[in-house]
Design a protein that fits this description.
Elements lengths: L4 H29 L4 H8 L3 H8 L7 H10 L4 H6 L17 E3 L5 E5 L9 E8 L4 E4 L7 E8 L1 E6 L2 E6 L3 E5 L4 E4 L6 E8 L7
Antiparallel strand pairs: 1-2, 2-3, 3-10, 4-9, 5-8, 5-10, 6-7, 6-9
Helix pairs in contact: 1-3, 2-3
Length: 205
């Protein structure tokens, strides 16, 4: 049986209050789970520190835009924030067939894209293999980008800005990749490495 008039208004008001309180508890729980201060969450979400504090204390009814900003900053869905349920562990499997493979122009270098597609705008992660004589030439990435090459097997040469260095198994080279750069296997054995490209990693003068 439904309710009307003043009774209906009371039910709606009570429901809104319960939702608001649940929202505040959820935002606070997620913020603390990431060890974020109110100021840090404010910076990441674009929501004023005072508003976040009021939400957590159940002293305001935020707009949908505010909830979306907070959910995005806390890396959860709006539904999760509104429902207040704790999300379970995140496990995602990619099969070999799901992994994109890039091949160098000479056909001797292979890059398996093992990074998460959701981070591709700022973090790219590859499994790199090069046959003897293989050369991977790359154009400059956006300014401030850094590449990290960790050699697992063999030797690899890195050339960037007119400077060449060699990394052996167990060694890592970090270098600017906002300049044209080359990775070469100048040895007589196959080489294997992981490569991580961090876009906008730093502001270079």
């Amino acid at each position: 049986m439904g309710v009307e008039g003043k009774d209906k208004a009371k039910v709606l008001e009570a429901g809104a209050a319960a939702l608001s309180g649940q929202l505040g508890r959820t935002v606070q729980r997620l913020r603390k789970s990431y060890s974020l201060s109110l100021s840090e969450l404010s910076t990441q979400s674009g929501v004023a520190k005072s508003i976040i504090s009021q939400i957590e204390r159940n002293e305001t009814n935020p707009t949908l835009t505010t909830i979306w900003r907070l959910a995005h900053a806390l890396d959860v869905s709006i539904e999760s924030v509104l429902q207040g349920a704790e999300e379970g562990p995140f496990i995602e499997r990619s099969s070999r067939g799901d992994t994109p493979i890039l091949v160098s122009d000479d056909g001797l270098c292979r890059l398996a894209v093992i990074g998460w597609i959701k981070t591709v705008d700022w973090l790219q992660w590859y499994d790199f293999r090069a046959e003897p004589g293989g050369l991977l030439e790359s154009e400059a990435h956006q300014r401030g980008s850094i590449e990290c090459l960790s050699v697992i097997e063999g030797d690899l040469e890195i050339e960037v800005g007119g400077v060449t260095q060699t990394a052996r198994a167990g060694e890592t080279l970090r270098y600017r990749c906002d300049l044209p750069h080359r990775i070469r296997n100048a040895s007589t054995k196959s080489a294997h490495a992981t490569m991580v490209c961090i876009l906008r990693a730093a502001v270079m003068d």
